[in-house]
Amino acid sequence: MVGDAMWILQWLPWWLFYVVLALGLVGLVITYLLKFIPLPIIHVYKTPLQIGSIILVVIGVYMLGSIANERAWQARIKELEVKLAQAEAEAAKQNIKIVEKVVVQQKIVRERGQNIVQYVDREVVKYDTKCEIPQPFVDAHNRAAEKIQ
Q1: CB of 26 within 8 A of CB of 72?
Q2: How many angstroms separate the first and last alpha carbons of the chain?
Q3: Which residues make Cβ contacts (< 8 Å) with residue 42, sequence separation at least 6?
Q4: In angstroms, rounded to a whole number, what is the distance separating the alpha carbons of residues 127 and 105?
Q5: 144, 116 Cβ separation under 8 angstroms
Q6: Contact at 8 Å (CB) between 148 and 111?
Q7: CB within 8 A of 140, min separation 6: which ones?
Q8: What is the chain's Cα-based Rg?
């Protein structure tokens, strides 16, 4: 039901609901003062005036609560938009750092791979005629498989 009243806030000015509340309160005061007036014709309008005044007070209080709630949500939305913008800026900075780190890692892997290929090509020529696996080749293979830091 609260969501149903929100569309009214877009079309009617906020001060109108203060006027409705004030009219309801004035109506209740008038109905209280009517018992001091001795004219019986006036007492015929007392009950409808009380009912109308109570309805106006309820509508006014409900809509003022809706206005306060809407303002609170709008303030919360603005706060979250600021936090989102800050988080996006921080994410952009972190993305730049990650990309730089990946580029450096790729460069290291390429250089290390080229060095190992050159070393293996240089060492394999020495041992190509024999069928044994030399220790420098095993060491080069193990270094190639190490985790890059």
Answers
A1: no
A2: 60
A3: 34
A4: 32
A5: yes
A6: no
A7: 116, 119, 120, 123
A8: 41
Q: What angle do CA 34, 35, 39 make, to 5 degrees?
A: 75
Please name the amino acid found at residue 32: Y
Tokens 């020529």 found at: 125
d(CA 77, CA 79): 5
User: Which secondary structure element, helix H or strand E, spans residue 71, and what is its range?
Assistant: helix 46-127
For tokens 């079309």, the residue is: 11
- Domains of the chain, by residue range, sit at 2-145
CA 60/CA 66 separation, integer angstroms: 10
For 95-128, letters b (16+ CB in 10 Å) and e give eeeeeeeeeeeeeeeeeeeeeeeebeeeeeeeee
Render each residue's pLDDT in the chain as its tens digit; 149 residues.
445 556 666 777 888 889 999 999 999 998 888 878 777 777 788 888 899 999 999 999 998 998 888 889 999 999 999 999 999 999 999 999 998 888 888 888 888 878 777 777 776 666 656 667 777 777 777 777 776 65
